[in-house]
């Protein structure tokens, strides 16, 4: 999901494709439910150009980015998490030094 958000952030369209193999074709409903979850997860970043559609053994969907001022990321960037953890570690070290 983070990669999809990154592509949408850059202004690119995203194609989501779910390929069924063998007996998985008996559970098309689970595949469509997964596509709906993806659509809901990315609704702050994208609009659905082509709704989820069963094409043979695959389900495909195309998402296009919202205008830049309306985008809202739901999944954090890995760099942000790393910086937050690093800052928390530094703060912890300072506290330990002050206690000594």
What does this structure look like?
This protein is of the alpha+beta class and 100 residues long. The protein has one domain: Translation Initiation Factor IF3, CATH 3.30.110.10. Helix content is 44%, strand content 24%. The protein has helices at residues 2-9, 28-41, 78-99; strands at residues 14-19, 46-55, 58-65. A three-stranded antiparallel beta sheet has the order 1-3-2.
| Tally of domains | 1
Q: Determine the N-to-C terminus distance.
A: 44 Å
Low-confidence runs: none
Give the class-level CATH name.
Answer: Alpha Beta
Average pLDDT, rounded to a whole number, is 86
Major sheet attributes: 3 strands, antiparallel
Sketch the topology as an H/E string, one letter per element.
HEHEEH
How large is the radius of gyration?
20 Å
SS-based structural class?
alpha+beta
Shape: elongated
Assigned CATH architecture: 2-Layer Sandwich
Q: What is the helix fraction of residues, given as a range?
A: 40-55%
At the fold tier of CATH, the topology name is Translation Initiation Factor IF3
Q: DSSP helix count?
A: 3
